[in-house]
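Q: what does this look like with magnesium ion bound?
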Amino acid sequence: MITTVTLNPAVDKTYTAARLLLGQVNRMDSVKNIAGGKGINVAKVLRQYDYPVKALGFMGGYTGRFIEDYAKEIGIQCHFTHVKGETRSSINILSQDGYVTEVLEPGPTISEAELTLFLEDYDRETKDSSLVILSGSAPTGIPSSIYKELIQRSKKQGKKVLLDTSGQFLKEGVMAKPFMIKPNVKELEILADRKLKGLEEIADAAVFLNRQGIEHILVSMGAKGLLYVREGEVIHAKAPKIKAVNTVGCGDSTVAAFAIALESGLSGEDMLRMCIGISVANAATLESAVIPRDLAEELKEKAEIVIL
Ligand SMILES: Nc1ncnc2c1ncn2[C@@H]1O[C@H](COP(=O)(O)OP(=O)(O)OP(=O)(O)O)[C@@H](O)[C@H]1O
Ligand SMILES: [Mg+2]
C-alpha cells in the first residue's frame, strides 16, 4: 500500500470565455471541474498503474465531497480528515484574446482540534503502507513544521517517505531527512540558499543534501529533464523533445513514477527512464495526471542518460 497526503487539495475549475471584463457580467462558454491537489494527482497516476493507494488530507464542504467522490470512483481508498471549512477551488479562465486569468481561493483554516484529528488519522492509516508520499503546501492553521513532524513519525515506524513541497515546508521538512525529495530548481535554490546556474551548480547543491543524509535527491528541471543523486553519484536524464500541451502535474507524475519504480524494484537508470516516460507523457497530454501508458513507454526509451 502507498499512502499519499494532500493537506491542501483543490477543485481545479477551467472556464473558457470570449473575453473577461472587470466589473461586468462575464458569461463563460464552458466549464470543466477536475479533482486536484498535488497528492491527489500522485494517487491518480498510481491508480492508472494499478497500485493500491490510500489518500489522506483535509477535506471540507461540497468541493471536498466532489474530490472524494472522484477519488473513490478511480479506486483510491479515502481516509480524509473532514473539516468545517470548504476545500478550495482554483479557477482558471482561458479567454480567446489569449489571457489566462487565475482566481485562487485561500482554502479552509484548520483548527487545532482538526489538526489533532488528522495526526491520529495519519498514525493509524499509514500503518499498512510501505511508502508515504507528502505533497504540496498546507492550509492556514498548519505549522510549517508539519512535514518534519510527519516524516519523524513515519521514520520511527520504518516507512520510506517521499517529500515534494516548497518554501518553509520544504526547508523544515528536509531537517527530518526524508528518504527522497523532488525539488525543482527553484525549490533546490531555497534549500541551498543561493541561485543555481547550470547543471554543475545544481549537482553540487544536490550532492550536498545527499551527504547530509537524504538518500535520494531527484531534481526536476522542466524540459531539461531530471538530475538524480544517490550515494554521491550524479546522473542526468535528458527529456526527449515534445510539444508540451499542459505541464500541470508534471512534478506529481515524476513523484508517482519514482514510487512505481521503487515498488517494482527498479533503480538508477531504469528508475530514471520510468520518471522521464511518465512525466513527459503528462506534459504532452491535455488533462493533468492522466498518462497515456503507450506514450510513456515510448518516451522512456528516448530518455538520454548521462552519468556526470
Ligand atoms: N516542457 C516539458 N517538456 C518535456 N518534459 C517536461 C516538460 N515540463 C516538464 N517535463 C517533465 O516533467 C518533469 C517535472 O517537471 P517540472 O520540473 O516542471 O516539475 P515541477 O516544477 O515540480 O512541476 P509542478 O510542481 O508544477 O508539477 C521534468 O523533469 C520533465 O521530465
Ligand atoms: Mg513541483
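The CA atoms of residues 116 and 122 lie 10 Å apart. The mean pLDDT is 97.
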